[in-house]
Fold:
Amino acid sequence: MEKSFRPRRRPPTPSGARGFTLIEVLVALAVLAIALAAVLRAMGQSIDLTAQLRDRTLALWVAQERAVQHQLKRDWPAVDTTEGTMEMGDREWRWRERVSTVGDTPDLRRIDIEILAPRSPDVLARLATAVQQPTAQP
Structure:
């Protein structure tokens, strides 16, 4: 008995089940583009926030450095406002110090330190410290 070779017939398919239409592909691409735009925006905001946090952290370190300098020098600053610059983290930072008296205590001064970014009026860090009038060494 000899078998004859006959090609298989495909089952009939409904006319709408052949694939995606052009409209469906365009809608899918539009949804994908919107989702990617949202992801890119979120990443950009994350990068901006990271840069701001880095700047604020460095500014706080600058303020702490100024406070430690006063404590180590054991100086007695005059009641006044002074300004200057300082380098840290390969950047130049502006600082402003306001020295004031503390209540009825004549031998204590409060120093309010503000750190500003270069070429910006924004205060990035604030720190308050107190120094005591140095006593005479015997």
Observations:
- The chain has a mean pLDDT of 88.
- The radius of gyration is 35 Å.
